[in-house]
Specification:
The complex is a heterodimer of chains A (365) and B (132). Chain A is mainly β and 365 residues long. Chain A is 10% helix and 31% strand. In chain A, the strands form 2 sheets. A 9-stranded mixed beta sheet of chain A has the order 7-15-14-13-12-11-10-9-8, with no helix packed on it. The longest helix of chain A has 14 residues. The two termini of chain A are 36 Å apart. Chain B has 132 residues and is mainly β. Chain B has one domain: Lipocalin (Beta Barrel). The relative contact order of chain B is 0.18. Classes of the chains: A mainly beta (365), B mainly beta (132). At the A-B interface, helix 4 of A face loops of B.
Chain lengths: 365, 132
Protein backbone atom coordinates (compact mmCIF):
# COMPACT_ATOMS: atom_id res chain seq x y z
CA UNK A 1 0.00 0.00 0.00
CA UNK A 2 1.49 3.34 -0.94
CA UNK A 3 1.63 6.21 1.47
CA UNK A 4 -0.62 8.18 -0.83
CA UNK A 5 -3.14 5.39 -0.77
CA UNK A 6 -3.11 5.29 3.01
CA UNK A 7 -3.53 9.01 3.20
CA UNK A 8 -6.27 8.73 0.63
CA UNK A 9 -8.23 6.50 2.93
CA UNK A 10 -7.95 8.83 5.89
CA UNK A 11 -8.91 11.81 3.81
CA UNK A 12 -11.71 10.05 2.03
CA UNK A 13 -13.05 8.65 5.28
CA UNK A 14 -12.98 12.13 6.75
CA UNK A 15 -14.59 13.62 3.71
CA UNK A 16 -17.24 10.92 3.56
CA UNK A 17 -18.27 11.35 7.16
CA UNK A 18 -21.59 13.12 7.66
CA UNK A 19 -22.41 12.50 3.98
CA UNK A 20 -24.80 9.55 4.31
CA UNK A 21 -27.70 11.74 3.28
CA UNK A 22 -25.82 12.67 0.11
CA UNK A 23 -24.22 9.42 -1.01
CA UNK A 24 -25.63 5.89 -1.16
CA UNK A 25 -22.90 3.63 0.16
CA UNK A 26 -24.89 0.57 -0.94
CA UNK A 27 -24.32 1.36 -4.62
CA UNK A 28 -21.25 1.71 -6.80
CA UNK A 29 -20.67 3.29 -10.15
CA UNK A 30 -17.78 3.30 -12.61
CA UNK A 31 -17.38 6.43 -14.69
CA UNK A 32 -15.06 6.77 -17.67
CA UNK A 33 -14.61 9.95 -19.59
CA UNK A 34 -12.72 13.16 -20.12
CA UNK A 35 -12.08 15.62 -17.32
CA UNK A 36 -13.87 18.89 -18.04
CA UNK A 37 -13.16 20.82 -14.87
CA UNK A 38 -11.17 20.51 -11.64
CA UNK A 39 -12.27 22.38 -8.54
CA UNK A 40 -9.37 22.28 -6.14
CA UNK A 41 -11.28 23.76 -3.23
CA UNK A 42 -11.32 23.28 0.52
CA UNK A 43 -12.72 21.17 2.10
CA UNK A 44 -13.24 18.70 -0.76
CA UNK A 45 -11.87 18.73 -4.25
CA UNK A 46 -14.09 17.86 -7.20
CA UNK A 47 -13.47 16.51 -10.68
CA UNK A 48 -16.00 16.99 -13.43
CA UNK A 49 -16.08 14.23 -16.01
CA UNK A 50 -18.03 13.88 -19.26
CA UNK A 51 -19.42 10.35 -19.29
CA UNK A 52 -21.20 8.79 -22.25
CA UNK A 53 -24.10 6.58 -21.19
CA UNK A 54 -25.41 3.45 -22.93
CA UNK A 55 -27.65 5.54 -25.16
CA UNK A 56 -24.73 7.61 -26.30
CA UNK A 57 -25.73 10.69 -24.39
CA UNK A 58 -22.93 12.60 -22.69
CA UNK A 59 -23.56 13.63 -19.09
CA UNK A 60 -21.29 15.68 -16.88
CA UNK A 61 -20.61 14.10 -13.48
CA UNK A 62 -19.30 15.86 -10.38
CA UNK A 63 -16.87 13.56 -8.56
CA UNK A 64 -15.90 14.45 -5.00
CA UNK A 65 -12.63 13.19 -3.54
CA UNK A 66 -9.99 14.17 -1.00
CA UNK A 67 -9.03 17.26 0.92
CA UNK A 68 -6.85 19.44 -1.33
CA UNK A 69 -4.37 20.71 1.24
CA UNK A 70 -3.62 17.25 2.54
CA UNK A 71 -3.42 15.80 -0.94
CA UNK A 72 -0.92 18.49 -1.86
CA UNK A 73 1.19 17.63 1.17
CA UNK A 74 1.38 14.09 -0.14
CA UNK A 75 2.57 15.23 -3.53
CA UNK A 76 -0.62 15.15 -5.56
CA UNK A 77 -0.89 18.61 -7.02
CA UNK A 78 -3.87 20.20 -8.63
CA UNK A 79 -2.13 19.83 -11.98
CA UNK A 80 -1.78 16.05 -11.65
CA UNK A 81 -4.75 15.97 -13.97
CA UNK A 82 -5.35 18.15 -16.99
CA UNK A 83 -8.54 19.17 -18.67
CA UNK A 84 -9.19 16.58 -21.34
CA UNK A 85 -7.43 13.72 -19.54
CA UNK A 86 -9.49 10.55 -19.70
CA UNK A 87 -10.00 8.91 -16.29
CA UNK A 88 -11.77 5.90 -14.90
CA UNK A 89 -13.43 6.59 -11.60
CA UNK A 90 -14.84 4.02 -9.20
CA UNK A 91 -17.26 5.83 -6.93
CA UNK A 92 -20.21 5.83 -4.60
CA UNK A 93 -23.09 7.58 -6.37
CA UNK A 94 -25.27 10.27 -4.85
CA UNK A 95 -28.76 9.41 -3.80
CA UNK A 96 -31.48 10.22 -6.29
CA UNK A 97 -30.71 10.87 -9.92
CA UNK A 98 -27.99 13.51 -9.58
CA UNK A 99 -24.82 13.03 -11.58
CA UNK A 100 -22.64 13.25 -8.51
CA UNK A 101 -20.42 10.65 -6.87
CA UNK A 102 -17.79 10.17 -4.19
CA UNK A 103 -14.57 8.70 -5.61
CA UNK A 104 -12.99 5.59 -4.18
CA UNK A 105 -10.45 5.29 -7.03
CA UNK A 106 -9.29 7.49 -9.90
CA UNK A 107 -7.11 5.99 -12.67
CA UNK A 108 -5.49 8.10 -15.39
CA UNK A 109 -6.08 6.20 -18.63
CA UNK A 110 -3.06 7.43 -20.62
CA UNK A 111 -0.59 6.19 -18.03
CA UNK A 112 -2.63 3.60 -16.17
CA UNK A 113 -1.53 5.36 -12.98
CA UNK A 114 -3.88 5.10 -10.06
CA UNK A 115 -4.07 8.64 -8.75
CA UNK A 116 -6.35 8.03 -5.85
CA UNK A 117 -7.61 4.94 -4.12
CA UNK A 118 -9.47 4.07 -0.97
CA UNK A 119 -8.10 0.79 0.37
CA UNK A 120 -10.38 -1.66 2.09
CA UNK A 121 -8.79 -1.07 5.48
CA UNK A 122 -6.97 1.95 6.89
CA UNK A 123 -3.26 1.79 7.30
CA UNK A 124 -2.49 1.27 10.96
CA UNK A 125 0.20 3.52 12.36
CA UNK A 126 0.98 1.65 15.55
CA UNK A 127 4.75 1.35 15.90
CA UNK A 128 4.64 -1.31 18.56
CA UNK A 129 3.51 -1.15 22.15
CA UNK A 130 5.27 1.57 24.13
CA UNK A 131 4.52 2.92 27.56
CA UNK A 132 2.62 6.19 27.78
CA UNK A 133 4.92 9.23 27.88
CA UNK A 134 5.17 11.01 31.24
CA UNK A 135 6.06 14.38 32.66
CA UNK A 136 9.17 14.65 34.86
CA UNK A 137 6.94 14.29 37.93
CA UNK A 138 5.59 11.00 36.61
CA UNK A 139 2.16 12.12 35.49
CA UNK A 140 0.95 10.79 32.15
CA UNK A 141 1.21 13.13 29.18
CA UNK A 142 -1.86 13.26 26.96
CA UNK A 143 0.02 14.86 24.08
CA UNK A 144 3.25 14.26 22.24
CA UNK A 145 6.48 14.05 24.27
CA UNK A 146 9.11 16.77 23.72
CA UNK A 147 10.69 16.67 20.29
CA UNK A 148 7.91 14.52 18.84
CA UNK A 149 4.72 15.29 17.05
CA UNK A 150 1.47 13.48 16.60
CA UNK A 151 -2.20 13.68 17.41
CA UNK A 152 -5.15 11.52 18.35
CA UNK A 153 -6.86 10.17 15.25
CA UNK A 154 -9.35 7.42 14.54
CA UNK A 155 -11.85 6.43 17.22
CA UNK A 156 -12.68 2.76 17.71
CA UNK A 157 -16.44 3.44 17.68
CA UNK A 158 -18.49 5.30 15.13
CA UNK A 159 -21.03 6.56 17.66
CA UNK A 160 -21.65 6.80 21.38
CA UNK A 161 -23.84 4.00 22.73
CA UNK A 162 -24.46 2.73 26.22
CA UNK A 163 -21.82 0.26 27.35
CA UNK A 164 -23.26 -3.23 27.22
CA UNK A 165 -21.94 -6.61 26.34
CA UNK A 166 -23.83 -6.63 23.07
CA UNK A 167 -22.52 -4.91 19.99
CA UNK A 168 -24.90 -2.74 18.01
CA UNK A 169 -24.34 -2.83 14.26
CA UNK A 170 -24.00 0.59 12.67
CA UNK A 171 -21.98 2.19 9.91
CA UNK A 172 -19.21 4.79 10.16
CA UNK A 173 -21.66 7.66 10.35
CA UNK A 174 -23.56 6.08 13.23
CA UNK A 175 -26.50 4.85 11.16
CA UNK A 176 -27.98 1.74 12.72
CA UNK A 177 -28.09 -1.38 10.58
CA UNK A 178 -31.44 -2.12 12.21
CA UNK A 179 -33.49 0.80 13.49
CA UNK A 180 -35.20 -1.46 16.02
CA UNK A 181 -31.88 -1.40 17.89
CA UNK A 182 -32.56 2.21 18.92
CA UNK A 183 -33.72 1.07 22.35
CA UNK A 184 -30.30 -0.46 22.96
CA UNK A 185 -28.39 2.70 22.11
CA UNK A 186 -29.35 4.71 25.18
CA UNK A 187 -32.15 4.91 27.79
CA UNK A 188 -34.20 7.49 25.91
CA UNK A 189 -37.22 9.37 27.13
CA UNK A 190 -40.01 8.83 24.57
CA UNK A 191 -39.55 12.19 22.81
CA UNK A 192 -35.81 11.67 22.56
CA UNK A 193 -36.17 8.22 21.07
CA UNK A 194 -38.62 9.60 18.51
CA UNK A 195 -36.18 12.38 17.59
CA UNK A 196 -33.28 9.92 17.34
CA UNK A 197 -35.32 7.61 15.12
CA UNK A 198 -36.37 10.55 12.95
CA UNK A 199 -32.73 11.54 12.48
CA UNK A 200 -31.82 7.96 11.60
CA UNK A 201 -34.74 7.53 9.20
CA UNK A 202 -33.84 10.74 7.43
CA UNK A 203 -30.22 9.55 7.05
CA UNK A 204 -28.85 12.30 9.29
CA UNK A 205 -29.79 14.98 6.76
CA UNK A 206 -30.14 17.65 9.45
CA UNK A 207 -26.74 16.95 11.02
CA UNK A 208 -25.43 20.30 12.29
CA UNK A 209 -21.85 19.18 11.73
CA UNK A 210 -22.58 18.71 8.04
CA UNK A 211 -23.32 22.44 8.11
CA UNK A 212 -19.99 23.13 9.73
CA UNK A 213 -21.25 23.66 13.28
CA UNK A 214 -18.82 22.47 15.95
CA UNK A 215 -18.81 18.86 17.18
CA UNK A 216 -19.70 19.47 20.80
CA UNK A 217 -19.73 16.86 23.56
CA UNK A 218 -18.24 13.39 23.02
CA UNK A 219 -18.42 13.83 19.26
CA UNK A 220 -15.32 16.01 19.29
CA UNK A 221 -13.35 12.84 20.04
CA UNK A 222 -14.68 10.92 17.07
CA UNK A 223 -14.66 13.68 14.48
CA UNK A 224 -12.63 13.37 11.30
CA UNK A 225 -9.16 14.91 11.44
CA UNK A 226 -8.58 14.10 15.08
CA UNK A 227 -7.56 16.24 18.05
CA UNK A 228 -4.69 16.88 20.39
CA UNK A 229 -4.16 17.95 23.97
CA UNK A 230 -1.95 20.87 24.92
CA UNK A 231 -1.27 20.66 28.63
CA UNK A 232 -0.46 24.12 30.00
CA UNK A 233 0.37 23.02 33.50
CA UNK A 234 1.74 26.38 34.56
CA UNK A 235 -1.58 27.96 33.64
CA UNK A 236 -3.70 25.23 35.18
CA UNK A 237 -5.50 24.30 32.02
CA UNK A 238 -5.54 21.83 29.16
CA UNK A 239 -6.44 22.90 25.65
CA UNK A 240 -8.11 20.42 23.35
CA UNK A 241 -7.33 21.39 19.77
CA UNK A 242 -9.80 19.91 17.35
CA UNK A 243 -9.19 18.97 13.74
CA UNK A 244 -12.89 18.44 13.10
CA UNK A 245 -15.31 21.26 12.42
CA UNK A 246 -13.40 24.49 12.02
CA UNK A 247 -10.27 23.72 14.02
CA UNK A 248 -11.98 24.77 17.24
CA UNK A 249 -10.52 24.44 20.69
CA UNK A 250 -11.86 23.64 24.11
CA UNK A 251 -10.47 24.61 27.51
CA UNK A 252 -10.39 22.26 30.49
CA UNK A 253 -9.42 24.08 33.68
CA UNK A 254 -7.28 22.04 36.04
CA UNK A 255 -6.44 24.82 38.50
CA UNK A 256 -8.87 23.60 41.12
CA UNK A 257 -11.63 26.09 40.41
CA UNK A 258 -15.13 24.84 41.19
CA UNK A 259 -17.65 24.06 38.51
CA UNK A 260 -19.98 26.96 37.71
CA UNK A 261 -23.62 27.13 38.64
CA UNK A 262 -25.78 25.77 35.79
CA UNK A 263 -27.92 28.90 35.66
CA UNK A 264 -24.90 31.19 35.44
CA UNK A 265 -22.77 29.37 32.90
CA UNK A 266 -22.83 30.78 29.39
CA UNK A 267 -23.97 27.91 27.23
CA UNK A 268 -21.74 26.79 24.38
CA UNK A 269 -20.80 23.92 22.12
CA UNK A 270 -18.01 22.70 24.38
CA UNK A 271 -19.50 23.48 27.76
CA UNK A 272 -17.77 24.66 30.90
CA UNK A 273 -15.13 22.09 31.85
CA UNK A 274 -13.14 21.60 35.04
CA UNK A 275 -10.81 18.65 35.45
CA UNK A 276 -8.66 16.90 37.99
CA UNK A 277 -6.39 13.88 38.00
CA UNK A 278 -7.25 10.62 39.70
CA UNK A 279 -3.99 8.70 39.39
CA UNK A 280 -3.31 8.44 35.66
CA UNK A 281 -6.86 9.36 34.70
CA UNK A 282 -8.00 12.88 33.87
CA UNK A 283 -11.58 13.34 35.07
CA UNK A 284 -13.47 16.24 33.51
CA UNK A 285 -16.81 17.59 34.65
CA UNK A 286 -18.73 19.66 32.08
CA UNK A 287 -22.02 21.54 32.04
CA UNK A 288 -23.29 24.54 30.15
CA UNK A 289 -24.03 23.06 26.73
CA UNK A 290 -26.28 24.62 24.15
CA UNK A 291 -28.68 22.55 22.06
CA UNK A 292 -27.26 23.43 18.66
CA UNK A 293 -25.24 20.25 18.09
CA UNK A 294 -25.55 16.48 18.06
CA UNK A 295 -23.36 15.09 20.81
CA UNK A 296 -22.33 12.03 18.77
CA UNK A 297 -22.40 10.66 15.26
CA UNK A 298 -25.78 9.08 14.64
CA UNK A 299 -27.81 11.91 16.14
CA UNK A 300 -28.27 11.37 19.88
CA UNK A 301 -30.30 14.31 21.23
CA UNK A 302 -29.65 16.28 24.41
CA UNK A 303 -30.89 19.39 26.18
CA UNK A 304 -29.26 22.24 28.05
CA UNK A 305 -29.43 20.04 31.15
CA UNK A 306 -26.63 17.87 29.74
CA UNK A 307 -23.94 17.08 32.30
CA UNK A 308 -20.94 15.06 31.15
CA UNK A 309 -18.28 13.36 33.22
CA UNK A 310 -15.40 12.34 30.99
CA UNK A 311 -12.47 10.12 31.93
CA UNK A 312 -9.30 10.14 29.82
CA UNK A 313 -6.48 7.69 30.31
CA UNK A 314 -3.52 6.57 28.21
CA UNK A 315 -2.83 2.89 28.86
CA UNK A 316 0.00 2.94 26.32
CA UNK A 317 1.67 5.40 23.98
CA UNK A 318 -0.71 4.77 21.08
CA UNK A 319 -4.01 4.44 22.88
CA UNK A 320 -6.30 6.95 24.53
CA UNK A 321 -9.18 5.50 26.48
CA UNK A 322 -12.22 7.76 26.54
CA UNK A 323 -15.20 7.11 28.76
CA UNK A 324 -18.11 9.46 29.32
CA UNK A 325 -21.08 9.45 31.68
CA UNK A 326 -24.09 11.17 30.16
CA UNK A 327 -26.51 12.70 32.63
CA UNK A 328 -29.41 14.58 31.03
CA UNK A 329 -32.67 13.92 32.87
CA UNK A 330 -34.63 15.85 30.25
CA UNK A 331 -33.53 13.43 27.54
CA UNK A 332 -32.66 10.10 29.20
CA UNK A 333 -34.37 8.10 31.90
CA UNK A 334 -31.13 7.69 33.87
CA UNK A 335 -27.43 8.48 33.63
CA UNK A 336 -25.54 6.14 31.34
CA UNK A 337 -21.98 5.50 30.23
CA UNK A 338 -20.23 4.84 26.95
CA UNK A 339 -16.87 5.34 25.34
CA UNK A 340 -14.21 4.20 22.95
CA UNK A 341 -10.49 4.19 22.37
CA UNK A 342 -8.62 6.55 20.09
CA UNK A 343 -5.44 5.72 18.16
CA UNK A 344 -2.32 7.89 18.15
CA UNK A 345 -1.16 9.18 14.76
CA UNK A 346 2.62 9.45 14.93
CA UNK A 347 4.87 12.06 13.39
CA UNK A 348 2.10 14.09 11.84
CA UNK A 349 0.23 17.24 12.62
CA UNK A 350 -3.56 17.51 12.54
CA UNK A 351 -4.52 17.98 8.89
CA UNK A 352 -5.37 21.53 7.96
CA UNK A 353 -9.09 21.43 7.33
CA UNK A 354 -11.70 24.13 7.35
CA UNK A 355 -15.34 23.25 7.03
CA UNK A 356 -17.14 25.62 4.69
CA UNK A 357 -20.88 25.39 4.50
CA UNK A 358 -22.23 25.07 0.99
CA UNK A 359 -18.74 25.31 -0.48
CA UNK A 360 -19.62 22.79 -3.16
CA UNK A 361 -22.90 24.50 -4.04
CA UNK A 362 -20.92 27.44 -5.33
CA UNK A 363 -19.60 25.41 -8.22
CA UNK A 364 -21.88 22.39 -8.69
CA UNK A 365 -24.61 23.44 -11.06
CA UNK B 1 -28.35 53.35 -10.01
CA UNK B 2 -27.71 49.81 -11.17
CA UNK B 3 -24.69 49.69 -8.87
CA UNK B 4 -26.84 50.65 -5.89
CA UNK B 5 -29.34 47.89 -6.66
CA UNK B 6 -26.53 45.44 -7.10
CA UNK B 7 -25.10 46.48 -3.72
CA UNK B 8 -28.51 45.95 -2.13
CA UNK B 9 -28.73 42.58 -3.80
CA UNK B 10 -25.35 41.63 -2.35
CA UNK B 11 -26.42 42.73 1.13
CA UNK B 12 -29.61 40.67 0.81
CA UNK B 13 -27.61 37.71 -0.47
CA UNK B 14 -25.20 37.98 2.44
CA UNK B 15 -28.13 38.06 4.86
CA UNK B 16 -29.69 34.98 3.28
CA UNK B 17 -26.38 33.15 3.50
CA UNK B 18 -25.99 33.73 7.22
CA UNK B 19 -25.73 30.35 8.89
CA UNK B 20 -28.79 29.43 10.91
CA UNK B 21 -28.27 27.74 14.25
CA UNK B 22 -30.82 25.06 14.85
CA UNK B 23 -32.12 24.19 18.26
CA UNK B 24 -31.64 20.44 18.38
CA UNK B 25 -33.10 19.55 21.79
CA UNK B 26 -36.78 18.97 22.50
CA UNK B 27 -38.59 19.90 19.27
CA UNK B 28 -41.08 22.25 20.96
CA UNK B 29 -38.54 24.24 22.95
CA UNK B 30 -38.17 27.77 21.64
CA UNK B 31 -40.13 30.77 20.42
CA UNK B 32 -42.80 30.27 17.79
CA UNK B 33 -44.63 32.95 15.87
CA UNK B 34 -47.43 33.04 13.33
CA UNK B 35 -51.14 33.70 13.31
CA UNK B 36 -54.55 32.17 13.71
CA UNK B 37 -57.99 33.09 12.45
CA UNK B 38 -61.35 31.87 11.25
CA UNK B 39 -60.74 33.02 7.68
CA UNK B 40 -57.83 33.83 5.46
CA UNK B 41 -58.33 37.56 6.00
CA UNK B 42 -59.26 37.63 9.67
CA UNK B 43 -55.98 36.76 11.32
CA UNK B 44 -54.53 37.48 14.74
CA UNK B 45 -50.78 37.28 15.34
CA UNK B 46 -49.67 34.80 17.97
CA UNK B 47 -46.36 34.14 19.67
CA UNK B 48 -45.73 31.07 21.78
CA UNK B 49 -42.73 30.49 24.00
CA UNK B 50 -42.36 26.88 25.11
CA UNK B 51 -39.82 24.98 27.17
CA UNK B 52 -39.32 21.35 28.15
CA UNK B 53 -38.25 20.74 31.75
CA UNK B 54 -37.90 16.99 31.48
CA UNK B 55 -41.45 16.24 32.59
CA UNK B 56 -43.70 18.64 30.76
CA UNK B 57 -43.76 21.44 28.22
CA UNK B 58 -44.79 24.76 29.68
CA UNK B 59 -44.91 28.28 28.31
CA UNK B 60 -46.80 31.41 27.41
CA UNK B 61 -49.01 32.61 24.59
CA UNK B 62 -48.21 36.17 23.55
CA UNK B 63 -45.63 36.99 26.25
CA UNK B 64 -45.98 40.51 27.62
CA UNK B 65 -48.64 42.42 29.57
CA UNK B 66 -51.43 40.27 28.12
CA UNK B 67 -49.65 36.96 28.21
CA UNK B 68 -51.63 33.76 28.64
CA UNK B 69 -50.00 30.89 30.55
CA UNK B 70 -50.18 27.62 28.69
CA UNK B 71 -52.14 25.21 30.88
CA UNK B 72 -51.08 22.01 29.16
CA UNK B 73 -49.20 20.69 26.18
CA UNK B 74 -49.63 17.12 25.02
CA UNK B 75 -47.25 15.72 22.41
CA UNK B 76 -47.79 12.39 20.70
CA UNK B 77 -44.27 11.53 19.57
CA UNK B 78 -45.52 8.67 17.40
CA UNK B 79 -46.86 11.14 14.88
CA UNK B 80 -45.70 14.48 16.33
CA UNK B 81 -49.20 15.80 16.89
CA UNK B 82 -49.46 18.49 19.56
CA UNK B 83 -52.40 19.70 21.66
CA UNK B 84 -52.06 23.00 23.50
CA UNK B 85 -54.62 24.30 26.00
CA UNK B 86 -54.87 27.58 27.85
CA UNK B 87 -57.42 29.78 29.57
CA UNK B 88 -57.85 33.52 29.29
CA UNK B 89 -60.56 36.16 29.54
CA UNK B 90 -62.15 38.30 26.87
CA UNK B 91 -62.53 42.08 27.03
CA UNK B 92 -65.66 41.66 29.19
CA UNK B 93 -63.89 39.47 31.67
CA UNK B 94 -65.57 36.27 30.56
CA UNK B 95 -63.55 33.08 30.68
CA UNK B 96 -62.32 31.88 27.29
CA UNK B 97 -60.77 28.49 26.68
CA UNK B 98 -58.12 28.05 24.02
CA UNK B 99 -57.46 24.66 22.45
CA UNK B 100 -55.05 24.21 19.56
CA UNK B 101 -54.32 20.94 17.84
CA UNK B 102 -51.62 20.65 15.23
CA UNK B 103 -48.82 18.64 13.74
CA UNK B 104 -45.10 19.35 13.71
CA UNK B 105 -43.63 19.45 10.22
CA UNK B 106 -40.00 19.12 9.17
CA UNK B 107 -38.83 18.16 12.62
CA UNK B 108 -35.13 18.64 11.97
CA UNK B 109 -35.41 22.07 10.41
CA UNK B 110 -34.59 25.26 12.23
CA UNK B 111 -37.82 26.80 10.91
CA UNK B 112 -40.03 23.84 11.67
CA UNK B 113 -43.74 24.55 11.71
CA UNK B 114 -46.77 23.65 13.75
CA UNK B 115 -50.07 23.86 11.88
CA UNK B 116 -53.60 22.83 12.77
CA UNK B 117 -56.87 24.05 14.23
CA UNK B 118 -57.22 26.77 16.85
CA UNK B 119 -60.37 27.12 18.92
CA UNK B 120 -60.70 30.20 21.11
CA UNK B 121 -64.01 30.36 22.93
CA UNK B 122 -66.73 29.86 20.36
CA UNK B 123 -64.49 30.79 17.44
CA UNK B 124 -62.81 28.06 15.47
CA UNK B 125 -60.10 28.62 12.93
CA UNK B 126 -56.71 27.44 11.81
CA UNK B 127 -53.22 28.40 12.86
CA UNK B 128 -49.68 28.16 11.65
CA UNK B 129 -46.65 29.01 13.73
CA UNK B 130 -43.00 28.74 12.83
CA UNK B 131 -40.12 28.37 15.21
CA UNK B 132 -38.08 31.56 15.20
Amino acid sequence: MTRLAAVGFVLAAAAFAQRAATYDRERKVTLKGAVTRIEWVNPHAFLFVNVRDAAGTVQNWAVEFGEPLELEKEGWKANALRIGDVVTVDAIPARGDRNQAFATSVVLTRTGKRLFVVPAQPAATTPGRQPAPRWPDGRVRLGAPPGKKGYWGPASASALVEETREKIAMNREGLLADLSDADRVAPFLPWAKAVYEYRQRTLLKDDPMARCLPPGGPRQFQAPNGFQFVEQRELGRILVLLGGGDRNWRVIYTDGRPQGEPDEVVRGYYGNSVGHWEGDTLVVDSIGYNEHFWMTNGGLPHTEALHLTERFSRPDFNTLKYQVKVDDPRTYTRPWTGGWTVAWVSDREIPEYFCEENAESTFIR
Amino acid sequence: MAGRWFARFLVLLAFLMLPVVAQQGHPLTGTWSGDWGATATQRAPITLVMDWDGKKVSGLINPGPDSIPIASVYVDVSNWTVRIEADTKDASGNAVHIAAEGRLEDLGSYHRTLTGTWRQGATKGDFKITRD
